[in-house]
Amino acid sequence: MAKKKEVTVEEKLRALYDLQLIDSRIDEIKNTRGELPLEIEDLEDEITGLNKRLDTFKTDIDDLNAAIVDKNQAIEESKALMKKYTEQQKNIRNNREFDSLSKEIEFQELEIQLAEKHIKEFKAKIAHKEEVIEGSQEKIDNLDNHLKHKKEALSEIMAETEKEEKVLIKKSEEFSKLIEERLLQAYTRIRKNVRNGLAVVAVERGAAAGSYFTIPPQRQMEIAMRKKIITDEHSGRILVDVELAAEEKIKMSKFIS
């Protein structure tokens, strides 16, 4: 049985740097979109919230209109009772019955007044809610228009970069499979922790790219020998020599150009 070929440290470093080049290009593409995706998401959330508020207000108005119908019906019932009691008063034989019916008529008059007061209050609430709805709808229309322009701007950017991004993401997944799990996890962790997403950088002018901390000459020699994975003691990023970086940039240019 043939023995599986052992992957050298240099091959691991090259694979890691290749992956970094691809992922950096993906980052560049995403950066061209700027804050547009987040702005679009915020606008959509705000519009959704306003629409829910509108729905609640419309339901409230429906309930208030239904309550007005009920109160009007109660008024008609009270008027009918008043008419009935007034007719009965014409046929009574003593003052006690007359007074009793008068109290019933008075009670129904109070019921009508109370119902009319409630109707007036309900109509005032409806007017206020309709005013709020009108203002909210105007705001929604403005936000919808703003959202439309944001989406058009994003679509233009996406049209230019989406195809390239899909190809690069696929390549990133392919290259990730070439790297052992432990190293890939370290690479992913470092990328999340550094601002620019650079987990693998070349040593340039005696320091890690983007860093002002000088790497001791002995350490630089070890990096150039490519015999072990060496990280920057200040940032934790994986270090490669400048020659390896240049070679991989040329090799990977067809993927990220």
Count of helical stretches: 6
Compute the CA-based radius of gyration.
39 Å
How much of the sequence lies in strands comes to under 5%
Q: What's the structural domain tally?
A: 2
> Can you list the strand order of the major beta sheet?
2-1-3
Structural class by sheet pairing and helices = mainly alpha
CATH level-1 class of the largest domain: Mainly Alpha
SSE map:
Layout: H1 9-32, H2 36-89, H3 95-176, H4 181-193, E1 200-204, E2 207-208, H5 217-225, E3 238-241, H6 242-256
Helix pairs in contact: 1-3, 1-6, 2-3
Key features of this structure:
77% helix; 2 domains; mainly alpha; 4% strand; three-stranded mixed sheet
